[in-house]
Design brief:
2 copies of one chain form a homodimer. By secondary structure, chain A is mostly helical. Chain A has one domain: Orthogonal Bundle (Tetracycline Repressor, domain 2), CATH 1.10.357. The first copy, chain A, is built from 8 helices and no strands. In chain A, helix 3 packs parallel to helix 6 and helix 7 runs antiparallel to helix 8. The interface between A and B is large, with 45 and 45 residues. The first copy, chain A, binds a DNA duplex (30 and 30 nucleotides) through loops. Chains A, B: Keywords: Transcription, Transcription regulation.
DNA sequence: GCATCAAGCTATTAGTCGTAGCCACCCCCG
DNA sequence: CGGGGGTGGCTACGACTAATAGCTTGATGC
């Protein structure tokens, strides 16, 4: 019996692909195993069950989303950075719905948890968007949460076909970006 | 063998309770049956399988959320209506996470679908929030989507423990409501 | 009072995750 | 170079799930 040469990372990558393809259905060990040309129980030599595998996919998703955000925002500030971040999130959620869905519900993290460091890196991108606006430091955390809520909500509703009406969704995204940009500029400490 | 006297609606209600209690875990027929004092297969006399039951829970959730929104916004306008809507959504999602999660992913609906009429009723509440602002009619649909994205995103991130930092979440909600209110007033057709 | 329909049940099938235990391959080390 | 150990596959199994088939009994209507 020839060895498939699996390694932890390759199992996670295959699981992420499967999760994206079958989203919103839950990830299944048997499908991941089949994708890797291996029988189900073999996976348990590399990952510690379905929960662990899902968690690994979530961590991968957080890291990839953070990379996408940083790349999109490189060299941009203010409205440009905001629009780039929104577009990056929408694109990532549409291309990798399973990975992104896994990232939600990672729950609170401990300080030294590998999840926490990736999550911090990714969430700091939202703070970077605000760097272009001179906000009251006390307001920054609220602004980050508002930003994250709006972009997360928009992307998830879009991918879930939650927008019933017929207007163009790109137009709506631009409108929301402009709305937030105007609000943030109006909130600058004068 | 005494009859449990089940009716479709009571099965849906029990399933909704179970879904809320075990959220974010998926709904299971066996748990619903146990809750009703009945064996699993008996449920199939009342609902058409797990997918159908989940869909019924989702419809119930949409209807209840719409009721909660209308009640909260009664007699309010402008910022008051906006704050009431935000609070109503947050409360509903926290009290009924399973119902609410089921509502996402109902997908696009046909015109005469019972889902569509409840969904329209509920979504019209977001339009009602905007009634207090004199917006350009062309912008209204974008504003509705922005509003829904922000409130949906905030509530889901809150219930998923997605807000890592330590600032008070109620404060952040108030800040976001104020932010949107100021933006909408600034966008009024002068 | 009887017949019919509805609503429960048990038994079964197929599919899931996960564990136990086996076996062969590969590498390292003496 | 040869053996031992660790590694990574496998099959077999147990417990759980949804769902169907078919039976039986209770309730209702004529």
């Amino acid at each position: 019996m020839p060895r498939a040469g699996l390694i932890g990372a390759s199992v996670t990558e295959a699981a992420a692909q499967v999760a994206d393809e079958i989203s919103p259905a839950p990830l299944r060990m048997s499908v991941v195993a089949e994708r890797l040309g291996v029988k189900g129980p073999s996976l348990y030599k590399h990952v510690d069950g379905l929960d662990d595998l899902t968690r690994r996919v979530a961590i991968l998703g957080v890291a990839e989303l953070g990379d996408a955000l940083r790349e999109a925002m490189q060299g941009r500030a203010g409205r440009d950075a905001l629009a780039a971040a929104a577009q990056a999130i929408r694109t990532y959620v549409k291309q990798h719905p399973g990975r992104y869905a896994a990232t939600i519900g990672l729950g609170p993290t401990e300080g030294d948890d590998p999840v926490a460091v990736e999550l911090d890196r990714t969430l700091s991108s939202f703070g970077a968007v605000l760097r272009g606006y001179r906000l009251d430091p006390d307001a920054e955390i609220h602004a980050i949460r508002m930003l994250r809520s709006a972009l997360h909500g928009f992307a998830t509703l879009e991918v879930a076909d939650g927008f019933q009406m017929s207007a163009d969704i790109d137009d709506s995204c631009r409108w929301m970006v402009d709305f937030i940009d105007r609000g943030l500029r109006a909130a600058e400490t004068s």
